[in-house]
Amino acid sequence: MRVLPKPPSGSELRQVMVESQLWKAIFRHGYPDDPPNRALVIMSNVFLHLHPVKVKKHAAKFTWTYGLGGISFYLFLLLTVTGVYLMFFYTPSADLAYPSIKAINSEVTFGLLTRNMHRWAAHLMVITVCLHMIRVFYQGGYKPPREFNWMIGVLLLLATLLLSFTGYLLPWDQLAFWAITVGTNMAGYAPLVGYQAHTLLLGGTAVGPNALLRFYVLHVIFLPLLLGVGLAIHFWRVRKDGGISGPIPDILADLELERPEYWRKEPLDSTISG
User: Fold this and answer.
1) Cβ contacts of residue 229 below 8 Å, gap of 6+?
2) How big is the chain by its Cα radius of gyration, in Å?
3) CA-based end-to-end distance of the chain
4) CATH code, 62-240
5) Residue 194: C-alpha distances to residues 153, 168, 209, 249 (Å)
6) Is 208 helix (H, G, I), strand (E, B) or coil?
7) All structural domains of the chain with their residue ranges
8) Burial class (CB in 10 A: 0-12, 13-18, 19+), 226
9) Across the chain, which distance is largest between two alpha carbons, in Å?
């Protein structure tokens, strides 16, 4: 009687899979069960390396940040996905822009839902980015050593507002036409560069086909790329600056570590008496 070989157990199959060349090519480090291996896993992963290896206790508390930065980032991802879908059906032409919007609302599968998601996500992103800036300012996150990242955040806020502004003209209806007319006329009164900014946005002296094309290119190519690069730098600086700003003891510890020149070495009493 022939005896059949015993099938491999689950642990043996797992061992063979983990030791295979394909597995090692994808996962270059083992299970992160100790601090050095956790650090290697984070630093060698293209998606995780922007995050710190360790997170401070206050940073994990929801009521410290309310997740406003993360919510803003995920809204940007939602806007990217819905915007790419809408690009398949939108035509940036003065004659076809409004009819294509009507077709998206009535004929395209999930078109009305996608457009409403895109529109409301844009409004919510402006709100959450503003609240995030207020939170960071209120908690002193703009102070050394995080002043550079604060300036990056200000630029990201401006890019967010410009994204919302440039998307306003794309439906090419009466509301969008006159709103952009008022907005660009206001930009024309800016000191020194008002005329240049007005002409650059409109491609002429009035809202027309050139303005629609320029707003479309700014909205779907230039500003999203600028925002994406700025977000990468912003997340990287959060990690390099020791995580998000924390309560006063953590801020003083970070200040002593990162910027010794800002730290008062001598006792306060001796300074006053001297």
Assistant:
1) none
2) 26
3) 100
4) 1.20.810.10
5) 24, 21, 21, 46
6) coil
7) 62-240
8) middle
9) 100
Structure tokens at 238: 């959060």
Say which residue the tokens 């200000």 belong to.
154
pLDDT attached to residue 18: 80
Q: Which amino acid is at 241?
A: D
Nearest to 118 by CA among 71, 81, 70, 64: 81
Write the DSSP symbol of residue 261: G
The predicted-structure confidence for 129-155, as pLDDT tens digits, reads as follows 999 999 999 988 898 889 999 999 999
Query: Which token pair is 219?
Result: 């909205």
Q: For the purposes of burial, counting CB atoms within 10 Å of the CB of 9, is it exposed (0-12), middle (13-18) or buried (19 or more)?
A: exposed
Taken in order 213, 215, 221, 222, the sign of the CA dihedral is positive
Retrieve residue 129's tokens: 């980015």
Q: Which tokens in the block code for residue 21? A: 């060349």
